[in-house]
Design brief:
Layout: H1 3-6, H2 10-26, H3 34-41, H4 45-51, H5 55-62
Helix pairs in contact: 2-3
């Protein structure tokens, strides 16, 4: 399910994970913005949705 994400270089994976953790810890799931996650990770929102199907799949990846 996360094959594309795992093909990224480790530094980019780390940015996405850390950004997601930070945004989800500040806001609840409903109010966490994928725009904010993408901006903080220095990637486009489209790229984020290329790596993860939707916000829920990202959330489940971060908090299994």
């Amino acid at each position: 399910m996360y094959e594309i994400f795992y093909k990224l270089d480790k530094e980019k994976q780390k940015r996405i994970i850390n950004s997601s953790l930070q945004i989800f810890s500040i806001n609840d799931f409903k109010h966490a913005s994928t725009d904010d996650i993408a901006t903080k990770a220095k990637i486009s929102k489209g790229s984020l949705f290329h790596y993860f199907k939707n916000k829920l799949s990202l959330y489940i990846f971060i908090y299994p």
